[in-house]
Amino acid sequence: MKKQKITAGERFRRWLDGETDIMESLMDFNENPYVSHHEAKENKRIRNRRIDESTSAKRMMSAERKGFRVMYSVVAVISCVSLIGVLLFVLANLPRYGVENPRTVEVVSRYVEKGVSETGAVNIVAGMILDYRAFDTLGESHVLFTALVCVMILLRKDRKNMSGVMDDYYTIAKERFHEISTESILRLVGALLIPCIFVFGIYVLLNGQNGPGGGFSGGAVMGAGFIMASASFGFDRVDRVITQKLSAFIAFAALSFYSFAKGYVFFTGANGLENHIPKGTPGAILSGGLILPLDIAVGIVVAFTMFGFYSLFRRGNIGGQ
Amino acid sequence: MSLIDGVKILLLILLIVCAVSVNLTKSLLQAVVIFMSYSSVMCLLWILMESPDLAITEAAVGAGVSGTLFLVTLRKIREADRDFEETKDNGR
Fold it and tell me: Would you say the pTM of this structure is higher than 0.80?
């Protein structure tokens, strides 16, 4: 086919009208536009096979593969060594562990001295991550939520992701068959452990401002409890509690509560320290002002995310069809 | 050197052994189990370094949830392999 010369303005007008692609003359497409896609593919395969079968091409390919292998190992060693060198260099410049250094001692002493009175949390770590530096924790929760959304997009078995309806029914029946034959040891251990796991998770979640723990740890423990329940008793029982709508709604509500509560505090109080919930006596369960609700919100997001990961990996949806 | 320091050094050596042997094992199942044991050792180390909240998270996420996800993925891969073999055999 002969190519006709078109001016730039003409091409732009055509592109605006949607007649042609502007990159058409710049990129190397099929020489003959009238050859169909399948024919072009077939031609290419035959040509490639002819090239592959010649001995010189074979020799070249093996040499190429060898060269690639050598280059790969050289580049890998160099990048590994340089990464280790950079890390060791940074490590050598860090302040020594346990020795006071003037750059961080101001912030640390402020946290240690005024932490309890300003945040109302006995556990200074909780006061830091959910009050002084709550923005970091907000970002972490959003990262988890985004990861859940991505896993849902990739692994969810709906009509778009399946090759056919029959395939769908087949896999569901197979999963059911595997689920029915659960072991009795697993059931017994599950029945003994699951209540303990949930009590421990709720304790860690609610006690974040007084002792070690908090939203993320408590939520992770509770998510592990959900996973244990679904592994030992089958998905049917867990589906009664957690459905897809419920989990999506609760995770969204918890995240938006966190965002609004903390965003409000960030925009009104200069230090992000003022809130309208009374701080209470330090050491009690209901203390720490906004820290306890934020802990609960983070814990809910983390627990549902953990179970959602497991459920999506295992069978491709949350809470049944 | 007190007893605690000795235990710490022992655990750190175990950590390095775990980290290296994950790369050297051929079986994926063994690699997952070693990875989970790495997390358990790390959990003990967090407790010895006086950060129990990190220890709880490490035990729940590192040794529990992520290991479970790896195991589930491994099972999926094996199922897919078996299905592929079956269809290949039927096709012949």
Answer: no
